[in-house]
Amino acid sequence: MVSAPSESPADLGARRAREYLHLVEEGRAEEAEALLSGLSDPRELVYVGAGLTAIARRTGRTLPTAMRAQASTRQVLLGQLRDRNRRDVDGLRSWLREAADEVRTVRRLAEAARRRLDQPSAG
Asked: Rounded to whole angstroms, how far apart are CA atoms 34 and 48?
């Protein structure tokens, strides 16, 4: 019998990021917080943050130029928040909450931009 390869830390972090984001988007705050509370190693938290960052950046690339620039600036600020809390698990959890909020913001902006582009011009 061949066993499946174990998940890499990056893959596990990306999966947890998607799971956390799903819980937040579904309004399941207690479960989302339980997921974060279950992570006590700063490396685990950083991998989850990398997953959230990848989602936000991927979505941000679909935004119109000015919105994309603003999203990029917010990513820099999130990186600074992460760096300030590098060894503080509670601080890293706070960073993850902010990163998830950023993903949600960028997704809303991308959806609004898509709707605007789909509307016929009034001129």
From this structure: 14
